[in-house]
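Appendix B, record 7
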Amino acid sequence: MSKDNQFEILLLVLKRFQEKGILKELMLIGSWCLEFYRYHFEDPEKLPAFRTLDVDFLIPHASKIKTETDVPEILKKEGFVATYNRSSDIVKYNHKELQVEFLVPELGRGGHGSREIKNLHIKAVALRYLSMLLDRPLLIHYKGLQVRVPEPAVFALHKLIVSEQRKNEKKKKSDLETALGLLDYLYSKPHEVNRIKTVLRGLPKSWINTIDSIARRQHPKLAETVERLG
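Structure tokens (predicted):
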């Protein structure tokens, strides 16, 4: 499995989505964001390296999508096979190099599970903590594509929070390492440190407490930032 091959397939998927006019309706939120951050920051060596099969797309405003687009058919033409898990009611799209999944923010407590996005012909998984990514998008222009990702600061803090919720130890470790590596880089840039402070000020107290608990063990600079905001 080559990361270069994976990235080329991801770019092809993004291109197909843009051609159909739906890329603007999606936000790329998984670890592949790091590839676009690397471009955004002009390829800094300090950004963490990664390798993952998972490509996660967040649908910020599913109810506002008016154009009907057969997303499974687009993916099928690029070699992806839909896999349905009956027990979880989750559909993933598998390629030998990548696995695509669609997500939506959880609506209230107990709003997890799957949600049908009729105009895209897909089911999306509802998860907690995704709402924090929606308010701080970053539009990156890459080789003719307009890719929407979360701001790096909010992405790092989100990874930190979800790492604490993971039951899979491998994914927990991966999320934590990604968050800490990106935070190390962001703390070398004063503007990004200010963005971290801004994001923290907008989070619920319970989420800040989770971040603080992890930061005290793993990232002293972030722990100091949280303490000063308190």
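Remarks on this record: The longest strand covers residues 99-105. The mean pLDDT is 91.
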